[in-house]
């Protein structure tokens, strides 16, 4: 299988699992204009999710929550990633005036619904162009939850002896240096040659990238490519949300 065939196979599996499949150029400036090439977040989808998940919070406060989510506030990538993880899991602190009493109300705007996976939007995008400074990169597959790029999938061709998991891992390190803004929102990195597959966080060393051996979360599966097991096991929508609450850079 070529790298493109591996990519299409993963997208087909994700589509069967309920993910909306989009091609990067389709949502760029030359397509639907859902994003500029410098955007790391699908802002319209994030805004719609904040409104859907937080009907009790006024629009002005949700706009402030949106700004806080997308704005870098710490000096390093790891610190910004941890800060975002906290917002993802615990919600964004907001305040607004109660129309009935006039009192200031303190609340948290939910970024994802961890209790009901169907209340979130799951979009897989391949060949997503990302520009940062002078760098132009195009990750293979990015998984967006409510407009946020939580998962990056980097693929290599198993038939090429130089394009192995180690090469995919090195490619992600290059991405981290050159389009670091994109990784502020990352919860999980997946590398695969179409057969073998491993996962970790943006701070994982090569030794800490690990396979996923079960589809249902209990029984290990044999005689199936590890990429298929990992895709079906980890990228199940409810399970991915559960994993996202537990994974963070260490």
Protein described:
The chain is α+β, with helices and mostly antiparallel strands and about 250 residues long. It contains 7 helices and 10 strands. The strands form 3 sheets. The protein has a 6-stranded mixed β-sheet, sandwiched between helices. Strands 2-3 form a two-stranded antiparallel ribbon. Strand 8, helix 5 (about 165-180) and strand 9 form a beta-alpha-beta unit. It is globular, with a radius of gyration of 18 Å.
What's the topology here?
Layout lengths: L2 H14 L3 E4 L19 H11 L5 H12 L6 H14 L1 E6 L6 E6 L12 E5 L3 E3 L2 E3 L3 E5 L2 E8 L9 H14 L9 E5 L4 E4 L25 H9 L2 H10 L4
Parallel strand pairs: 1-4, 8-9
Antiparallel strand pairs: 2-3, 4-7, 5-6, 7-8, 9-10
Helix pairs in contact: 2-3
How many E strands? Answer: 10
**Shape label:** globular
- Strand line-up across the major sheet: 1-4-7-8-9-10
Count of DSSP helices?
7
Task: Give the biggest sheet.
Answer: 6 strands, mixed
Distance between the termini: 35 Å
Listing every helix as H and every strand as E from the N terminus to the C terminus, the arrangement reads HEHHHEEEEEEEHEEHH
> How much of the polypeptide forms β-strand, as a percent range?
15-25%
Radius of gyration: 18 Å
Structural class given helices, strands, pairing?
alpha+beta
Unreliably modeled segments: none
The share of residues in helices is: 25-40%
Integer average pLDDT? 92
């Amino acid at each position: 299988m070529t790298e493109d065939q591996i990519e299409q196979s993963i997208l087909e599996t994700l589509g069967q699992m309920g993910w909306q499949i989009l091609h990067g150029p389709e949502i760029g400036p030359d397509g639907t204009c859902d994003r500029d090439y410098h955007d790391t977040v699908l802002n319209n989808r994030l805004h719609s999710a904040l409104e859907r998940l937080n009907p009790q919070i006024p629009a002005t406060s949700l706009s402030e929550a949106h700004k806080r989510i997308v704005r870098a506030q710490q000096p390093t990538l790891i610190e910004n990633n941890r800060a975002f993880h906290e917002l993802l899991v615990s919600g964004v602190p907001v305040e607004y005036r109660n129309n009935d009493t006039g009192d200031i109300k303190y609340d948290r705007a939910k970024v994802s619904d961890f209790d009901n996976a169907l209340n979130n939007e799951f979009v897989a995008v391949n060949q997503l162009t990302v520009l940062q400074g002078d760098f132009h990169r195009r990750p293979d597959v990015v998984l967006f939850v409510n407009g946020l790029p939580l998962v990056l999938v980097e693929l290599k061709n198993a038939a090429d002896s130089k394009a192995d998991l180690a090469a995919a891992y090195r490619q992600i390190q290059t991405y981290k240096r050159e389009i670091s803004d994109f990784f502020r929102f990352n919860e999980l990195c997946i590398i695969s040659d179409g057969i073998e597959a491993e996962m970790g966080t943006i701070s994982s060393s090569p030794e800490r990238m690990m396979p996923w051996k079960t589809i249902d979360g209990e029984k290990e599966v044999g005689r199936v490519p590890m990429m298929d097991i990992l895709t079906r096991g980890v990228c199940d929508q409810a399970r991915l949300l559960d994993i996202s609450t537990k994974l963070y850079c260490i």
